[in-house]
Amino acid sequence: MVRIAKLTIDSAQLDNYKAMLKEHAEVAVRVEPGVITLYAVYDKAKPTNVTVFEIYANQAAYLSHLQTPHFKKYKTGTKDMVKSLELVEVTPIALESKRK
């Protein structure tokens, strides 16, 4: 399952948001076997525009992710920072990467 999340963040809270997102992504990838990838970037020209590229092993892994304590901490902690959120379901064409 592949999804793109497009967010707009309150500029006054951007640094706090980025720290919370970074912590959440690191924990999710480390402890959840079904979370394959969480890449988060922001637009250089509009730093409040954040995009998260998410890959899960399957729908069940995604639904399980939503119930984890770290996801709930992230959602609760950032709810007043996020001005807008668009979730886009996508179908992969090519997902290639070099391993570390």
From TrEMBL:
<dbReference type="InterPro" id="IPR007138">
    <property type="entry name" value="ABM_dom"/>
</dbReference>
<dbReference type="InterPro" id="IPR011008">
    <property type="entry name" value="Dimeric_a/b-barrel"/>
</dbReference>
<keyword id="KW-0503">Monooxygenase</keyword>
<dbReference type="Pfam" id="PF03992">
    <property type="entry name" value="ABM"/>
</dbReference>
<keyword id="KW-0560">Oxidoreductase</keyword>
<dbReference type="GO" id="GO:0004497">
    <property type="term" value="F:monooxygenase activity"/>
</dbReference>
<dbReference type="InterPro" id="IPR050744">
    <property type="entry name" value="AI-2_Isomerase_LsrG"/>
</dbReference>
<protein>
    <submittedName>
        <fullName>Antibiotic biosynthesis monooxygenase</fullName>
    </submittedName>
</protein>
<feature type="domain" description="ABM">
    <location>
        <begin position="1"/>
        <end position="90"/>
    </location>
</feature>
